[in-house]
Amino acid sequence: MRKESYSLADLIEVTKPSPQRDDSLINCQYFAKCGGCQFQMLPYEDQLKHKKRIIEKAYSNFSGLNPEQVPAIKETMGSPLQYGYRTKLTPHFSLPFSRKKGPQKLTEVPNIGFMMKGRRTVMDIEDCPLGTDIVRTGLKNERKRVVDNLNQFKAGATLLVRENTKRIPKNKEEEDTSGNDTTRDVIRTEYPDYIEEKSYITDQKGISSEYIDDYLFRNVAGTFFQNNNSILSPFTQYSQTKIPP
């Protein structure tokens, strides 16, 4: 058997915090236990500097380039939003398992959420402050759907909550969105020229709509698409200024 060259440990207590650490910045009750976020205790500017160092070390250690060939890494572009930005969440749950009998039927509500840090165990997550308002609503509704239909699940599942955006020009007919598994929960915001409706999709094969400035993108809801649309406008504008004509 191969002997591991490292050890794993759980953080029990911070006895002497770093000068950079500010626990008042933590905005999630599951932080440090959930396997998702890593840096909520750091001021955002320090998070950006840390991410820059990660890229610098990656080039230095893994690129195979001579130091003089490594390009200078510029400052990390920050996100306009640090919370309430994720347009997609995929919570999941598992069936109880017996070594002799294999997967067992659900007899009680399982943990529904994300993997616990350092464990192959699902942690029960009732709310995720990273999600947009409509996605957080969808998470609560999907959790309730599992509870209400517990006997229908013969296996564990990965749930999907994907934001869907529709812009309705004022004084014009609404766009037909039939065929999408969208919900009745809608958040409406009025702008000078249109009304924007935020709903969510739970069908992996449904089509989600996403706007970057005035450009409309349609994607299969279950596939990957940038989950922080608040940064896409400044990011694409930056890219346009750097692409040669």
Q: Main attributes?
A:
245 residues, two-stranded antiparallel ribbon, 2 domains, four-stranded antiparallel β-sheet
| Strand residue content | 15-25%
| Oligomeric form | single chain
Q: What is the chain-wise order of helices and strands?
A: HEEEEEEHEEEEEEH
Radius of gyration: 22 Å
Report mean pLDDT, rounded to a whole number: 87
| Biggest beta-sheet profile | 4 strands, antiparallel
Low-confidence stretches: 175-179
Helix vs. strand class: alpha+beta
Q: Could you give the order of strands across the largest sheet?
A: 1-8-10-9
Describe the structure in brief:
With 245 residues, this protein is of the alpha+beta class.
What does this structure look like?
- The chain is α+β, with helices and mostly antiparallel strands and 245 residues long.
- The chain folds into 2 domains: 18-78, no CATH class; 88-172 and 186-233, no CATH class.
- Helices cover 19% and strands 20% of the residues.
- It has helices spanning 44-62, 133-148, 232-242, and strands spanning 88-89, 92-93, 97-98, 102-103, 113-115, 122-124, 157-158, 161-169, 187-190, 194-201, 207-212, 215-220.
- It starts with 43 loop residues before the first helix and ends with a helix.
